[in-house]
Amino acid sequence: MKFEAPVAVTEIAAYIGAELVGNSQLMATGINEIHKVTPGDISFVDFEKYYNASLQSAATIIIINKKVDCPEGKALLVLDDPFSAYVKLVKRFRPFEPATKAISDSAVIGEGTVIQPNVFIGNHVRIGSNCVIHPNVTIYDHCIIGNNVVIHAGTVLGADAFYFKKRAEREVMYDKLLSCGRVIIEDDVELGAGCTIDKGVSGDTIIGRGTKLDNMIHVGHGTVIGKNVLIAAQVGIAGKAHIEDNVILWGQVGVNKDLTIGKGAVVLAQSGVPGNLEAGKVYFGTPSEEARNRKKEITWIKRIPEIWEKVKDLK
Amino acid sequence: MKFEAPVAVTEIAAYIGAELVGNSQLMATGINEIHKVTPGDISFVDFEKYYNASLQSAATIIIINKKVDCPEGKALLVLDDPFSAYVKLVKRFRPFEPATKAISDSAVIGEGTVIQPNVFIGNHVRIGSNCVIHPNVTIYDHCIIGNNVVIHAGTVLGADAFYFKKRAEREVMYDKLLSCGRVIIEDDVELGAGCTIDKGVSGDTIIGRGTKLDNMIHVGHGTVIGKNVLIAAQVGIAGKAHIEDNVILWGQVGVNKDLTIGKGAVVLAQSGVPGNLEAGKVYFGTPSEEARNRKKEITWIKRIPEIWEKVKDLK
Amino acid sequence: MKFEAPVAVTEIAAYIGAELVGNSQLMATGINEIHKVTPGDISFVDFEKYYNASLQSAATIIIINKKVDCPEGKALLVLDDPFSAYVKLVKRFRPFEPATKAISDSAVIGEGTVIQPNVFIGNHVRIGSNCVIHPNVTIYDHCIIGNNVVIHAGTVLGADAFYFKKRAEREVMYDKLLSCGRVIIEDDVELGAGCTIDKGVSGDTIIGRGTKLDNMIHVGHGTVIGKNVLIAAQVGIAGKAHIEDNVILWGQVGVNKDLTIGKGAVVLAQSGVPGNLEAGKVYFGTPSEEARNRKKEITWIKRIPEIWEKVKDLK
């Protein structure tokens, strides 16, 4: 997420109550996750094992819970609870703006686009030309939709990431990381009915040009789906997955977070994908493996009684 | 379900056309299912094998299809079709009240709660303070929502239980048990987009304090979910399940009805839970078993060809 | 799909720019898929291996990409791209009509039917008597709903078929086949919350009398579900499946396209059905097989370590 205008790091430090270490002349240009940061961004880290990755990332300003050596040209904002400081920044720079009407005056809608009744379009939404948005669709604030996009009824774009920090000592144990990312739907995408595409935590959830989703598909926060991808009904994709171009996911497939499904891979129905899949291959099963291997396994399982007949009298 | 005021058992008997056996001075205070009844409640039973459980339950008034001995201090309402008599009572004491507007005048909404556009809030709904109800949410009559609750777009609270009696002799075979229970969402709960939480048949469906649901989660009638439970996207939980505190259900898990998942248990993605699970353990597979055992099985399956090589020449 | 009035085949030929071969006096009465065509219908074929089936079907007019012998009394419309010609006809004869209000003036709604707030009812919809349509339901144009039907909140009837032709040479690779079929819900059906029932490509998607669906069920284009069928939550059924009377599908089952599940068959939870199932049997697993066989397999898998103990010292 980028700020509307750069903010002095000193102002950030004062706002969250952090000790500023390093370059105090810096201007922050946005907030982002460690794997998506660009120069000017603020990021946060609260686990020692991620300190190095954070400090060496492109982030210019790092909110951190230990006073470590500050890399040249960067700034550290040191305090006890970086997570809460981050949430405080999101609340300030991307505050929730309750709607005053069903289609926000700040939304920009292109020529030839049809908005059917009972649609909600939030603040700062941009929709391209020649789209059809069917009834009862919800488009949260800041979503961006390209041209020639069709969104079927009841679909929801931009709900919050499902992302919580466990605070075992609290009565309400799960502490929510407020999301400030967006949903971006590129040109010529079709989304079926009853889908939910969550916004990114601080980066964007993206559905690439020409990709087609059937009904009731869940796409988690920050997931990036390539071009000309085909996804059948009731597929669920967790957060920060990367689905490359031309992939096909058949019905009810489940995809874990933080993985890559390579270009042109095909995942057969009801499979569960726990980790990366190579490009161009066909997968099946939970956990998924190459379909030809999984099918051999199914055949082997049916031969266990035959094996038993051969060995049952052995001592 | 409790009546607004007690009703004489003689009035109930006359209304449903039952023979009254036992104490005719009783006042009925509500209607409930056999495993949730409290003194004063009416319950019904139409299978001989459940007679004893019903007669010995806390229910004070039992609608029954056979004239059996009436326990001391109770009343039996004897007629041929207890199911239909029960449905008749639900229609009378919890009638469907068509809405006259999108947000009922009888709904009570707390301070600081934001209701976004296109939300439906039914009759007698109560919503606490500092909640956010996102667009296109539907809250059926009689739902109760606590404080600091977030409900994302398109979610539906309080639709009818999926509960039918099979009447094989009829052209329309499935006879619906009308639901009169409620949905209760406790404080600090977050519900993702596109979830459906059904009302109880006569008891309540409850989601405990601090519990967080991702998108497209189905919770069946009368299910009780504890505190600080985490449920990932596309999980389905059938009716009358009991999910204890601190349980984690990962994506696309399916949970059968009438079972208990013990405190802190974790069920890995796409697993199917057919029966009770012990507290504190990790489960995987369909049917689910302890994850470490299931993973060993997966390894063993891959060794069948090796076993075959050893035995193929045996006679 | 039937036209409002017959159209001369010569007019069709001119409109799509095809060479007319055969009987030029014919009148076209509608458009349909090869397995549903009736005399008077236009169908299309663009794969040589389906030529014979098309030419010998009941279709009277065939759009085809090769000039072959025309069967007696029929007409061929020959052009390079039958798929695009078909889409052009759908656009002309079943054009998308943007709504001017949430409940179309052209919709016909029967006596005693309750329409709750925030419902969308499209053009030319017909709804019978004594139905309840709960909030935030979307009913696309041309859907037909019988009497005594209950549709719970958020359900979507009549979204487009998920049906694309792959054009590998194009930048936007998937070319959409516009749907012109309908959704037909017969009497006494109940649909749970958050379901999506797609329209047929050119035929109809039908849910038979007395059938009951739980929440979040997906029914694909052109699927025909019989009478008194029971479908539990989160089941997904692909296009053109045929689910016969009295079938029961438990939760999260997935059903492939173009298959038949025989009368009274039962499919246990989370199963995946790849092909036809026989009537009256119980099935389980992915891929589904008879439940008793699948349960034996699960037992055999647990015995592999025992077999290994017997053979591990064999050479």
From TrEMBL, chains A, B, C:
Q: EC annotation?
A: 2.3.1.191
> Where in this chain does the entry annotate a coiled-coil region?
none
Q: List the signal peptide residues.
A: none
A Pfam match is Hexapep
Q: Which UniProt keywords apply?
A: Acyltransferase, Lipid A biosynthesis, Lipid biosynthesis, Lipid metabolism, Repeat, Transferase
Q: What class of enzyme is it?
A: transferase
Recorded GO MF terms:
UDP-3-O-[(3R)-3-hydroxyacyl]-glucosamine N-acyltransferase activity
Respond yes or no to whether keyword Acyltransferase is given for this record: yes
Keyword presence, Transferase:
yes
Question: Which NCBIfam families does the entry mention?
Answer: PRK00892.1 (NF002060)
> What is this protein's name?
UDP-3-O-(3-hydroxymyristoyl)glucosamine N-acyltransferase
